């Protein structure tokens, strides 16, 4: 049976604060040049650093593309590695966005679960990517920072029942180039798709009997 092309959506963020050039969007554009192989339809989007825009754009992407996976990429000024985030958090959003706004409830989805984990086993992805000999170090985190990155991740996880991922990258040149980040994203997302497919294969096998 021939498989169709799998839609995958990858987002980066626009400028904010001291990040006049957002490394996440630069890295995503590098990934777009590299692609994810012939059987993946890659769609990339730049998301503004605004809570309300995130809340309208992310559900729209799921509706438009019915993607197999959505990967959000954000920059962290404190990061010195490429970080795979395991979960998104619902509460604690007090930082003002680019339009000087923050949610009155300080939460993402009122009444939603406190945390949502990605269905992707980030430890497995991290281990696999670390054996590929990339010139980039990949690590794991359970705290995406309670700002737009975490907010977008939770919004996406809630929308997709966990079929989302979040990757934090350091600012450009601290220490990685745009090309290094693009190649790292390519390797990470290919492994994520593989891990996702295998875990779903097991689920489908159970359902078929």
From TrEMBL:
UniProt keyword Cell membrane, yes or no: no
Q: Which UniProt keywords apply?
A: Cytoplasm, Hydrolase, Protease, Thiol protease
Active-site residues? Answer: 149
In its UniProt record, which GO terms are filed under biological process?
proteolysis
UniProt-annotated location(s): Cytoplasm
Q: What is this enzyme's class at the first EC digit?
A: hydrolase
Q: Name one Pfam family in it.
A: Peptidase_C15
**Statement: the UniProt record of this protein carries the keyword Ribonucleoprotein:** no
Reactions it catalyzes = Release of an N-terminal pyroglutamyl group from a polypeptide, the second amino acid generally not being Pro
Q: What is its main location?
A: cytoplasm
Which cellular component terms (GO) are annotated to the entry? Answer: cytosol
Q: Which GO terms describe its molecular function?
A: pyroglutamyl-peptidase activity
Give EC number(s), comma-separated: 3.4.19.3
InterPro entries from the entry?
Answer: Peptidase_C15 (IPR000816), Peptidase_C15-like (IPR016125), Peptidase_C15-like_sf (IPR036440), PGPEP1_Cys_AS (IPR033694)
Per its database record, what is this protein's job? Removes 5-oxoproline from various penultimate amino acid residues except L-proline.
Q: How does it assemble?
A: Monomer.
Family named by the database record: Belongs to the peptidase C15 family.
Spell out the protein name for this chain: Pyroglutamyl-peptidase I
Q: Per the UniProt entry, what species is this protein from, by scientific name?
A: Pelusios castaneus
